[in-house]
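Let us work through a complete example step by step.
Step 1: write down the sequence.
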Amino acid sequence: MMVLWCWRWVKRGAFALGIVLLTLLAVRAFDAWRGPPLELWHTVVPHELTSQQIDETDLAGYLAAEERVFKEVREKVTDQLSPEEQLRFNRYFENSAVYPGNFSQNFNRTFSLSPSGEAIGAAVFLHGLTDAPYSLRHLAMHYQARGFHALVIRLPGHGTVPGGLTDIDYESWQAAARLAMREARKLAGPGKPVHIIGYSNGGALALMHGLDALSNPALVAPDKIVLLSPMIGVTEFARFAGIAGWPAIFPAFAKAAWLSILPEFNPFKYNSFPVNAARESYQLTQALQTSLQRHVENGQIARLAPVLTFQSVLDHTVSTRAVIRMLHERLPDNGSELVLFDVNRNTHFEQLLNARADTALSRLLPPAPRQFRTSVVTNSTPGSDAMEVQVTPAGSTDTMTRPLGLAYPPDVYSLSHVAVPFPLSDGLYGLERDSADYFGVRLGDVAARGEYGALIVNIDMLLRMSSNPFFPYLLERLDADLPSAPARQR
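Step 2: predict the structure and record it as tokens.
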């Protein structure tokens, strides 16, 4: 009797859960249906190499395939635009101010930089999700100036049209990272260091490659891993992102395959975001966390290259807690370092910060001693606006403080996920104007004021901090671990 009673309640619970799920899917389908229409750049899916094809080719073959992809986008999107789509700020309109093909260099494409003298090593750069090689150009140029070959590879599905991310998998991104590291090994030459630098989703790929190389001697193992806002963990919503796309199996609700459909006015980053991109990034972080746990348990983590991470305390895209707890607390005492950018504690916005933001640093960072060096960039000293860095060496409880000679801009209350790899002078995202570095639009110094509902994008998208006032310190920390370039012969 009891079994029958329990079975009835199970059936009722399953029925109720089904009703809730169907209701949510109906709401999702209706919300997508009434949203903006899909454009050519959403429906065209360029033919990228598969992960197996990438593993079987070299950089020359990869670049040839990339050329075919960009030709396909031109033929199927740019050459097919209707008069209504030929807008001044449509990146796919050839006469647009933001058309990437009209710039002296199209930073949506893979590019490499060679040092002026004898190379002392090579570095691979992996950009973020919906991003392009543009986002790591400043760091690549810095490595070049320090005597490194720099290879900034375009990950499959990126730099072309947002539709490219609707039919892509993270395994192809991993294959591109492997290819780039093979090429870097050849560029560096025997016995010279190879670094891997990853931003956001590219950070997860960089770390994943470093871990894979511990158990696969056929892979090129990095001598240094540099991470910027790395995607070690993402929000729980990403776990269920795939469900949001279920209504898209019906043609009438095709827009449900997109989490956002926005105008494409950024020449080097997609504004629209497909469900598949969220799902694949989540799958990547799950695979990464599994790999981390496995290498910790089998002891191979002890051979991982030193990890240098730059992370904003406030990050709405990735989990800062995951960066600390899932990564750095598991690393051996091997010279790894975590650089945290604190909130601005001397601004007229301070009283508007919620408690979670105001206490983020103290909540997230475990007490010393820690197995990794910690550097906190902050202006928390009472009565002082000056920025300083508070350094706690690995294994120590002593903190050394020194001034940086840098400052938070007065109207900025924190960095953000996207700000870390860009100096204030960046032509697209910087707060300071540089007429020599211009790409048709300036997104970093927008000061939009007006009434709600008038803009074609959410105002939060324009107000998010997109450059890093402490970029000089970031370069200083990079330089501390870079080998010296050989003296030039006169």
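Step 3: interpret the result. The first strand starts at residue 111 and ends at 113.
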